[in-house]
Predict the 3D structure of the following.
Amino acid sequence: MTVSAVVFDFDYTLTVPDRPRQEVLDDATAAVGAPDMSREAYLEAHSRHLDSDTRIPIFAELLGEDSAVAPEALADAYREKVADSLVAVESVPGLLADLREHYALGLLTNGPGDAQQSKLDRFDWVDAFDAVVITGHIEAGKPDERAFRAVLDDLGVAAEEAVYVGDDPEADVEGAKNVGMHAVQVVFEGGPDRHPDADAYVERDALATDLPGIVSQL
């Protein structure tokens, strides 16, 4: 069946932080006087709250009940620091404009609703997407099939007509393949290993030049 839609991941696919996320987390904890936290501990807690609308439950878990710092304050500080640190991958606006000539475009991103929306609001090119789904606004996060079906439903396309483009082997590649979509894994130095079930791979720095041709061959 002919591909009619391309759906993207957001973090580490279309945008990257301008410094390590551990430094961003350190900036946030320092801003509100919270104890140091490791990026690994944050990600573990994050994975348990993919359907939350805020990061408050994440930081409530990490801070503990006896913390003098309110999780709301740390969530606000981290949201601001993360959004300020993001930069777009080179040539993303041109890539989306090129793809729109042939395909419907979707965005499916994991994370709390308000946190992810604050990131999306930083970039005008997000308006190029025909459908945007943040997992914090629904009942499931990637790789749950319900997350992928939500964006497919919004686009009005069947799974086999759509390509998912993302970096994470489990959340993006396995999630897309399990629902019946094509999967193109975004790869980069220091990133996750290539998943053997991906239909194709694309270097993140070459998204604009290489992805349209890859999609046209699927």
